[in-house]
UniProtKB/TrEMBL annotation, chain A:
Lineage of origin: Bacteria, Pseudomonadati, Pseudomonadota, Gammaproteobacteria, Oceanospirillales
CDD domains: AdoMet_MTases (cd02440)
Protein name (database record): Methionine biosynthesis protein MetW
SUPFAM superfamilies, per the entry: S-adenosyl-L-methionine-dependent methyltransferases
Pfam families: MetW (PF07021)
Organism: Vreelandella aquamarina
TrEMBL record, chain B:
Gene Ontology biological process: homoserine metabolic process; methionine biosynthetic process
Catalytic residues (UniProt): 164, 329, 362
Organism: Vreelandella aquamarina
GO MF annotation terms: homoserine O-acetyltransferase activity; homoserine O-succinyltransferase activity
Protein location: Cytoplasm
Documented EC number(s): 2.3.1.46
Family listed: Belongs to the AB hydrolase superfamily. MetX family.
Keywords: Acyltransferase, Amino-acid biosynthesis, Cytoplasm, Methionine biosynthesis, Transferase
NCBIfam families: homoserO_Ac_trn, PRK00175.1
Protein name: Homoserine O-succinyltransferase
PANTHER family, A to Z: HOMOSERINE O-ACETYLTRANSFERASE
Length: 198, 398
């Protein structure tokens, strides 16, 4: 599994009922169902991802996240997970509201634009960063709202959300000690667990 | 116990089930209907493809749509030009893989292809049923299908599958007999008809009923057929099966000849096409059956028993669902499938949903399309794995 998914796996409680936004090929949901008795649905827009989910026996619903989550009731899930999709949404802030309307807790991962390699790309070489976590060119990227580890913390603070956990992924690893101390600089992928204030 | 109906047929395409022979089974236990009447006895005509395994765990039920019937796959004779109506999806290696599954496809009660319907003999009166044939509902069909399953020794379907009105029957199965359906595939369907859907059906019915040759449904006794009415009904129906884009790209404003005739004969290609479709249908389908089928569509509304709460109506369902819609279907548009999906998620049921890009409107459910086939195959492959169905046993008999 992808690094961020490995981390998230540990944060999902046994038997939870969850929504996995942008669930891709359904590998996280499959493992959570098999090993932790987790139930729920993945939302996905990519046809191949949907077919792969169906082949795995993972519940998947074709859904454009930019349409919001209005078809899901308040507090109807334990957790809503959204991996690597925040940056591609038209209004990431509204999605955050939606996630925490549907569930008390949300897990969000996104590429950290302030990662040192990205900074070098932009700061020294003067080009928009292209990396493993941001593989597209500026003109064809689906990532229209790039943000940093710090930016997201700031947004959570503004919304009065509680950050329960935060972590970073770097390449294929969970991150070096440097990324724990300076996540905004050394974290390639930002991973947050947030809650509504009680 | 019926085995596979499929016979050796040398010229068939490799992925065809080949030549098939329908069976007719007579039921003598009276069937109480939703309308309050009872059918004293009735026959159902059906076909099967593939082989029922020893555990009887690999049976798949196909439910047909408005003008469909039991002949879903293969050929009746080596001279047949066209295979059954869902041959694109049923056969060796196809989405519903007859190397693995034992497929049962029937003609519904009230039909005109061999099951008891308006053209059948009414034992009470000694004449044809005609317009006296009771209005049957989707629930009635499902009850009769369950009796067919009993007859075939099938306790539980590995999957019940249907498109359009067929999808509604599948939905009803999961509500009425939840323990007898292991998986449900509901394609291009809706949990209930909209006012616009009913309006189109009413136009079709009025076209038939106002044909002077309809004789209040007793046309057979007058040795005639309300062809004009049926033709009109089919023409209006057919418009709702295609998308605007599909019609545009198929016909555009093309004329049959170079010049306008300033008259009312066929001029545009689309007129010619619709008339042809209507003419063909008017000689092949029964008017009373058409009226019954459209009524079954109009009446279908499982949520009605739950004050309009579809999630509540679906509460008894136990099986995983695959719901499929098509982007250009405006008869039962994606939003209607999504209503169904949302009710299922609210009810906490296992459900997957895909909205397939297709230019073909409602008719897309009948046609092959790579994404549709990949998805359908993936789901049915999962069904086979879950039910521990392997292809080996069935392979030997072919």
């Amino acid at each position: 599994m992808r690094t961020d998914l490995e981390l998230i796996y540990d944060w999902v409680p046994q038997g939870a009922h969850i929504l996995d936004l942008a669930c891709g090929d359904g590998v996280l949901l499959e493992r959570l169902a098999q090993e932790k008795g987790v139930t729920g649905y993945g939302l996905e827009i990519d046809p191949d991802g949907i077919t792969q989910c169906v082949a795995r026996g993972v519940n998947v619903i074709e859904h454009n996240l930019d349409d919001g989550l209005s078809s899901f009731c308040d507090n109807s899930y334990d957790q809503v997970i959204m991996t690597q999709a925040l940056q591609a949404l038209r209004r990431p802030d509204k999605m955050l509201d939606e996630m925490l309307r549907v569930a008390e807790e949300g897990i969000i991962t996104f590429p950290n634009f302030a990662y040192w390699r990205h900074r070098i790309h932009l700061g020294l070489r003067g080009y928009m960063p292209v990396s493993k976590s941001l593989p597209h060119a500026w003109y064809d990227t689906p990532n229209i709202h790039l943000s940093t580890f710090n930016d997201f913390e700031h947004l959570c603070k503004e919304k009065g959300l509680v950050i329960v956990d935060r972590a970073v992924g770097v390449g294929d690893h969970k991150g070096h000690w440097t990324s724990k101390w300076w996540p905004n600089l050394f974290g390639e992928i930002a991973i947050f667990r947030v809650r509504r204030r009680a | 116990m019926p085995d596979s109906d499929t016979l050796a047929y040398d010229d068939r395409p490799a992925d065809s089930v080949g030549l098939v022979t329908p069976h007719v089974v007579k039921f003598e236990t009276p069937l109480p209907l939703a309308c309050g009447k009872t059918l004293p006895e009735y026959e159902l005509i059906y076909e099967t493809y593939g082989t029922l395994n020893a555990e009887r765990s690999n049976a798949v039920l196909i439910c047909h749509a408005l003008s469909g019937h039991h002949h879903a796959a293969g050929y009746h004779t080596a001279e047949d030009r066209k295979p059954g109506w869902w041959d694109a999806h049923i056969g060796p290696g196809k989405s519903i893989d007859t190397n693995r599954f034992f497929v049962v496809s029937l003609n519904n009660l009230g039909g005109c292809h061999g099951s008891t319907g308006p053209a059948s003999h009414n034992p009470d009166t000694g004449r044809q049923w005609g317009p006296d044939f009771p209005v049957v509902t989707v629930s009635d069909w499902v009850t009769s299908q369950a009796r067919l399953a009993d007859h075939l020794g099938i306790e539980r379907w590995a999957a019940a599958v249907g498109g359009s009105l067929g999808g509604m029957q599948v939905l009803q199965w999961t509500i009425t007999y939840p323990e007898r359906v292991a998986n449900a595939v509901v394609i291009a369907a809706t949990p209930r008809l909209s006012a616009q859907n009913i309006a189109f059906n009413e136009v079709a019915r009025q076209a038939i009923r106002s044909d002077p040759e309809f004789f209040d449904g007793w046309y057979a006794e007058h040795d005639t057929v309300p062809k004009r009415g049926l033709k009109l009904a089919r023409m209006v129906g057919h418009i709702t099966y295609l998308s605007e884009d599909a019609m545009g790209s198929k016909f555009g404003r093309d004329l049959r000849s170079d010049d306008l005739s300033f008259g009312f004969d066929v001029e545009f290609q689309v007129e010619s096409y619709l008339r042809y479709q209507g003419d063909t249908f008017s000689t092949a389908f029964d008017a009373n059956t058409y009226l019954l089928m459209t009524k079954a569509l109009d009446y279908f509304d499982p949520a009605a028993s739950c004050d309009g709460d579809l999630a509540c109506a679906l509460a008894p369902a136990q099986c995983p669902f695959l719901i499929v819609s098509f982007t250009t279907d405006w008869r039962f548009p994606p939003s209607r499938s999504r209503e169904l999906v949302d009710a299922l998620t609210r009810a906490g049921k296992s459900v997957s949903y895909a909205n397939i890009e297709s230019p073909h409107g409602h008719d897309a459910f009948l046609l092959p399309e790579p994404r549709y086939q990949a998805l359908f195959s993936a789901f049915m492959g999962r069904v086979a794995r879950e039910q521990h169905i392997d292809a080996a046993g069935a392979e030997e008999t072919r």
